[in-house]
Amino acid sequence: MAEEGYSGYENWETWNVSLWLSNDEGLYNETKDILLDNPPEKLEFTHIGLGTSIEEEDIWIIKEARITLSEFVDQLLDDNIITDKISIHRVNWKEVIEDFAVELAKTNSKWKKWLKQSEKHPEWSSD
């Protein structure tokens, strides 16, 4: 049976981590700092489009942001700051990061480009 999601998120773990990070001012600011210090990275991608034309497109990835944020949350769990029992491997980090990217995109062009890409090509933005 397929999982139905939880409160608009992929699952309870994703919702819970997002809630913890966004509902505490200190954790919220620390998360924003982590994401600003680890902005999306641009990969240049060349492919053959329809017909024989060569198309270039930038792909923005969030690998470092995802890894660093995961390590931060893992430490919060170890330190019992986040007290819920979370299976961290089930967290959809893209969804958690998207919550913050909306705010960051207002002043940061890399986050703005990633967010735009995420909306246009959701399958490209998972890592």
Features:
alpha+beta; 2 strands; 127 residues
Give the count of structural domains: 1
Number of helices: 5
Share of β-strand residues: 5-15%
Largest sheet: 2 strands, antiparallel
Question: Could you characterize what this model shows?
Answer:
The protein is of the alpha+beta class and 127 residues long. It has one domain (12-124). 51% of the residues lie in helices and 13% in strands. A two-stranded antiparallel sheet has the order 1-2. β1 and β2 form a beta hairpin. α1 packs across α2 and α4 (93-104) crosses α5. The longest helix is centred in the middle third of the chain and has 16 residues, at 63-78. The protein is globular. It starts with 11 loop residues before the first helix and ends in a 7-residue tail after the last helix. The model has no long low-confidence stretch (mean pLDDT 87).
Task: Describe the structure in brief.
The chain is α+β, with helices and mostly antiparallel strands. It is built from 5 helices and 2 strands.
SSE topology:
Layout: H1 12-23, H2 25-37, E1 41-48, E2 54-61, H3 63-78, H4 93-104, H5 109-120
Antiparallel strand pairs: 1-2
Helix pairs in contact: 1-2, 1-4, 2-3, 2-4, 4-5
